[in-house]
Amino acid sequence: MLLVAVATRHGDELAADFLRLYGITDWRALRPSRAASLCQAMVSQPESWTHRAMNPHWRWADPAVAMQALQADYLALLVWMRSKDGQK
């Protein structure tokens, strides 16, 4: 059931992931149970393009990404504080 839903909504990403992660050029040639099993494992991995298409907020699940965003924000704040406007 998951495979059909994912193929309907994110077919291009699914095909690209099967090729990129498993080296399978046509996932439809697989037995349905095998394709569904591989799809289930694939969509749970954050490096999967299908996972990223299904979960638009996947980036923020990684604490390292959130920390990098905070560092960039604080750096921008420090730069502004050293400007003439920030010193007022």
Keywords:
2 domains, 5 helices
Strand content: under 5%
> How many strands, what sense, and barrel or not for the largest sheet?
none
Q: What is the N-to-C order of secondary-structure elements (H for helix, E for strand)?
A: HHHHH
Number of domains: 2
The percent of residues in helical segments reads 55-70%
Number of helices: 5
Mean pLDDT: 86
Q: How large, in whole angstroms, is the Cα Rg?
A: 20 Å
| Low-pLDDT residue spans | none
Distance between the termini: 61 Å
- How many extended strands? 0
Query: What class do helices, strands and sheet pairing give?
Result: mainly alpha
- Shape summary: rod-shaped
Commentary on this structure:
This protein is mostly helical. The protein folds into 2 domains: 2-56, no CATH class; 60-88. Helix content is 65%, strand content 0%. The chain contains 5 helices and no strands. α1 packs across α2 (11-22). The longest helix has 19 residues, at 63-81. The chain is rod-shaped.
List the helices and strands and how they pair.
Blueprint: H1 2-9, H2 11-22, H3 32-43, H4 49-54, H5 63-81
How would you briefly describe this protein structure?
With 88 residues, the chain is an all-alpha fold.
